[in-house]
Specification:
Layout: E1 4-5, E2 11-12, E3 20-24, H1 27-30, H2 43-48, H3 70-80, E4 84-88, H4 91-94, H5 104-119, E5 123-129, H6 135-138, H7 147-163, E6 169-174, H8 176-186, H9 196-218, E7 225-231, E8 235-237, H10 242-265, H11 270-273, H12 281-285, H13 290-294, E9 301-304, E10 309-311, E11 317-318, H14 333-347, E12 352-356, H15 368-386, E13 391-397, E14 416-419, E15 424-427, H16 429-440
Parallel strand pairs: 3-4, 3-13, 4-5, 5-6, 6-7, 7-9, 8-10, 9-12, 12-13
Antiparallel strand pairs: 1-2, 10-11, 14-15
Helix pairs in contact: 7-9, 8-9, 14-15
The protein binds beta-D-fucopyranose.
Length: 443
């Protein structure tokens, strides 16, 4: 961990031996093959095919065609030197209607993916739910329906049984906050609803699904570890006023504690719950015993970090740092240090993995801005490790350009460029830079 000199004389920050240098993707964003080998539709297939929902009418029908290019993509990961790869399983590829009979071909794809990673010395990190709820379940209410938590745990159990011998790290949910805030409140993600009260019920059922999946995991022989991947954003007052400090505390409850507390402390934060009206459907959705299920022990926590949040005394968000092409992103590497050390301080000494971190840039190949972004965030992560945080691995978002949800293909987040007309993969400057980082085990 001590700084050493690299050949150019600049200090190098060395990471602990065995640090998990990784990259992340998700199924709907890269796989394509939406109607092949028995895959059923998800809410994202339906949503993206609705006119006007995704920029330029884009869909994930083909995406980066990863389903057909598995071997080449695995070799790409090996050539970068990745030690860890975070991918998600498309629930409706394995269970076309969300439950019932397993689609053997779908399962086989993930089995080959896991094997291919292990053959190349790359540890699989599997996300079970990265937003692609099977459409057949959505027609029964999806996550609005409490039963969805149970359906999810059954699906999770199928995956633990199938891949538990090969997967060391499982993540139940990716960013439940985004499902609630964007899918059910703003309505700009699938399933495109705009109902804040219903959104909070969905959030509770997602948490319950996480808890039931953890329970299912403990009941299997799987030797791995399990947790969730949360999108977290440290919140700060935009000025010194008492009003801004109060608003920052409120924003922290909404952004962070309403997810962290139930998962890691087994209860919703009292100040957040107090903001829910007495007749809020959420209150009826919370049943006796849920808190214990949701708060059952996790082995690790996945942290998706994109930036900080600053709020004024009236509670509005202001950007005090530069943004990326993704205008919601306030780029502030120091926030990562604050976040990681805060988790340790408030939630205990849980092993952490950064499950996503990255930026969109319009720079197609010479993405020096991304290199700077990654370097600064890795330096902040290194500082957190020095401060005693048990950070085990880092997965940049993303391995390759992909379908960026409502933005379609207009935002590129990859370190590997994808020409969507030919599906040719080409290293950007950031990919070559990252390969060197991994080889030296430091920045
Ligand atoms: C995160 C998502 C991921 C990707 C990045 C840019 O919120 O988890 O799928 O879209 O943002």
């Amino acid at each position: 961990m001590k700084p050493v000199q690299n050949p150019s004389g600049a200090p190098e920050l060395r990471f602990p031996e065995g640090f998990g240098w990784g990259a992340a993707t998700s199924a709907y964003q890269i796989e394509g093959a939406a109607n092949e080998d028995g895959r059923g539709p998800s809410v994202w297939d339906v949503f993206s095919h609705r006119p006007g929902r995704v920029r330029e009418g884009a869909t994930g029908d083909v995406a980066a065609d990863h389903y057909h290019r598995l071997t080449g993509d695995l070799d790409l990961m090996r050539d970068l030197g990745l030690r860890s790869y975070r991918f998600s399983i498309a629930w409706p590829r394995v269970l076309p209607t969300g439950r019932g009979t397993v689609n053997a071909k779908g399962l086989d794809f993930y089995s080959r993916l896991a094997d291919g990673l292990l053959e190349r010395g790359i540890a699989p990190v599997v996300t079970l739910f990265h937003w692609d709820t099977p459409q057949a379940l959505q027609e029964l209410g999806g996550w609005e329906n409490r039963d969805c938590a149970k359906w999810f745990a059954d699906y999770a159990h199928t995956m633990f049984t199938a891949l538990g011998d090969r997967v060391p790290t499982w993540l139940t949910l990716n960013e439940p906050k985004t499902v609630v805030d964007v899918g059910y409140t703003a309505g700009t993600h699938a399933p495109g609803k705009q109902d804040r009260q219903l959104a909070n019920v969905v959030g509770h059922h997602l948490l319950l699904g996480h808890g039931l999946a953890v329970q299912a995991f403990r009941g299997t022989a799987g030797k791995g570890r399990i947790g969730a991947a949360l999108s977290l954003s440290p919140t700060y007052p935009a000025d010194d006023s008492a009003a801004a400090r109060l608003q920052a505390t409120r924003a922290d409850a909404e952004e962070n504690r309403r997810w962290l507390d139930p998962l890691l402390l087994g209860r919703y934060p009292a100040d957040w719950l107090a903001t829910q009206p007495a007749d809020a459907p959420l209150r009826a959705a919370i049943k006796d015993g849920d808190a214990a299920v949701i708060g059952a022990r996790n082995d690790l926590l996945g942290v998706n970090y994109y930036g900080t949040t600053h709020v004024t005394g009236t509670g509005s968000r202001v950007m005090l740092h530069p943004t990326s092409q993704a205008t919601w992103q306030e780029i502030d590497p120091n926030g990562l240090f604050d976040l990681l050390t805060r988790i340790k301080r408030d939630y205990g000494d849980l092993p952490l993995t950064i499950t996503e971190n990255g930026m969109a840039t319009t720079n197609p190949m010479q993405d020096q801005d991304r290199v700077t972004f990654l370097r600064d965030h890795l330096a902040a992560a290194h500082r957190a490790i020095q401060a005693g945080v048990r950070l085990e691995s880092y997965h940049l978002w993303s391995l390759m350009d992909n379908f960026e949800w409502a933005e379609g293909y207009t935002q590129r987040w990859g370190i590997v460029h994808v020409d969507f007309a030919t599906q040719k993969r080409t290293h950007k400057a950031s990919a070559d830079w990252y390969r060197t980082v991994i080889a030296r085990n430091g920045v």
